[in-house]
Amino acid sequence: MLNDLLLSLPFMTEARAELVINGFWPMVKAAFLVSIPLAIASFTLGMAIAVGVALIRVTPIQGILHRIVLWIVKGYISIIRGTPMLVQICIVFYGLPAIGIFIDPIPAAIIGFSLNIGAYGSETIRATILSVPKGQWEAGYTIGMTYMQTFCRIIAPQAFRVAVPPLSNTFIGLFKDTSLASVVTVTEMFRVAQQVANVSYDFLPVYIEAALIYWLFCWVLFFIQARLEKRLDRYVAK
């Protein structure tokens, strides 16, 4: 039945239908076993970097050491945002061996993705922190809270609700960007699609199939994002 459905498409042939059917489960398996874990690991590490960088940027300057760290952080953000993610990943995997640093494909991909997410995510988190009215900080100080107590108990919960939509979009974008890991020999979903297509050198149907699988996964992520935003809206004063 599936074969008949595929053959009803205008560009489909028997050979292409067989190629699409044979490639479906390997690609889905690679998505579950590699692409999604790769995205989760990179996003988690990237968010840890992003929070640290954002806190450095929003904390009032205290001495020359803080000023130096602040300039380093700004330089990191500028470099990452000003260069393609693909170049960053290739530097980690192909470039670092030139100075004696060898990293396996998956860790190299995670490092590249995390550094990228850390830079972009830090700007999102910084913006959400700054979106909280200054009166909230003053209220915390008034009742005797320290800077970190005020941030953790008052500012962070409010900033988190604001940050969910853009950070959710960042994660969805990262899931799609895991296809770049194929360049450093990570066998994620797109690399599996390439391997399937290389059997017959008929790339069009397999790549369309891969695109549809990416879209289906992203649709699920969109749904989860919408439910999470709706749930968090319950705690926002109208």
In words, what does this structure look like?
It is a single chain. By secondary structure, this protein is an all-alpha fold. It has a single domain (2-233), classed as MetI-like fold (Orthogonal Bundle). Helices cover 79% and strands 0% of the residues. The chain has 9 helices and no strands. The protein has helices spanning 2-7, 14-58, 63-81, 85-95, 105-131, 134-142, 147-177, 189-198, 203-233. Helix 2 (14-58) packs antiparallel against helix 8 (189-198) and helix 3 (63-81) packs across helix 5 (105-131). It starts with a helix and ends in a 5-residue tail after the last helix. The model has no long low-confidence stretch (mean pLDDT 88). One of its GO terms (cellular component) is ATP-binding cassette (ABC) transporter complex.
Please render the helix and strand layout as text.
Elements: H1 2-7, H2 14-58, H3 63-81, H4 85-95, H5 105-131, H6 134-142, H7 147-177, H8 189-198, H9 203-233
Helix pairs in contact: 2-5, 2-8, 2-9, 3-5, 4-5, 5-7, 6-7, 7-9, 8-9
